Recover the amino acids of this structure.
């Protein structure tokens, strides 16, 4: 009986602390910059041009509260709840790469060849999700 009382006290203490610490989550949508390279090939698979550039994009970064608590129901004796910071909504946009080169590495300056539009998806909003939950 004393053992069950101890588990009950630990369980309730853990739950109270987990609920009060949820404000410590720091999952945010932050600006970032990446170097993007895109290659174009013709119908025979030959490289036509390579374009690259530094692109400003959003990223998800931060921490989310996870917890492990005793459980008499689970086989391991512990109930684990893991949360991860990731995108809740993706925005599609087109970015322009302005440094283009032919297969020999010579920079392309002619109209129509000196830039390349690339479609990408980036996080518009980030929040904490249960780990492994991809059903959003």
């Amino acid at each position: 009986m004393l053992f069950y009382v101890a588990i009950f006290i630990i369980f309730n203490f853990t739950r109270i602390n987990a609920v009060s610490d949820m404000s410590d989550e720091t999952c945010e949508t932050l600006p970032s910059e990446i170097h993007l390279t895109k290659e174009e090939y013709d119908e025979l698979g030959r490289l036509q041009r390579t374009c690259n550039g530094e692109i400003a994009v959003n990223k998800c970064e931060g921490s989310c509260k996870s917890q492990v608590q005793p459980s008499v129901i689970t086989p391991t004796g512990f109930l684990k709840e893991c949360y991860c910071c990731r995108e809740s909504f993706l925005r599609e946009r087109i970015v322009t790469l302005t440094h283009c080169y032919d297969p020999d590495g010579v920079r392309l300056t002619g109209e129509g060849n000196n830039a390349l539009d690339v479609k990408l998806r980036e996080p518009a909003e980030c929040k904490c999700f249960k780990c492994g939950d991809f059903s959003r």
